[in-house]
Amino acid sequence: MGLNLYSFRVRYSETDQMGVVYHGNYAQYLEMGRVEWLRALGVTYKSMEDNGIMLPVISLHIDYKKSALYDDLITVETQLKNKPMVKIEFEYKIYNEAKELLATAHTVLAFMDKKTNKPIRCPDYILERLDF
User: Which residue range(s) make up the domain with 28?
Assistant: First the structure.
């Protein structure tokens, strides 16, 4: 399971007075991409949390290329970078409807035990669904 695409329209509340998406909203777009990547794998954040696993972001890097605008149809391309162990890394590309690259990004998240707040290995039920 390498690549997942998730598309949505930019809402007015996500933009500034010029109709440009506020830069901080891109982190939410990346989260939407990750959530849908996991869902396509057959796993939800809710099910992970119900099983005592949290997945906090420990690193986030975004390179902005071009502005996203109000009502643009945005596509977040989410790809797993490598086999997850204690950390899971994703790379992203965000495009508009004209297929123009708006941003590239990279995140690192850590699997954490909800009770102990300690790092843990990637659950087997996720590893079993990956093509590594």
Answer: 3-127
What are the pLDDT digits (tens) for 46-64?
999 999 999 999 999 999 9
In a domain, 132, yes or no: no
Instruction: Give tens-digit pLDDT for 34-45.
Output: 999 999 999 999
Of these residues, 16, 50, 71, 113, which one is catalytic?
A: 16
Tell me if residue 124 is catalytic: no
5: CB partners within 8 A, 6+ apart = 75, 76, 77, 78
Q: Give the global pTM.
A: 0.93
CA atoms within 13 A on the CB side of 16: 9
Among residues 34, 13, 3, 29, which one has the least CA distance to residue 108?
34
CATH number at residue 52: 3.10.129.10
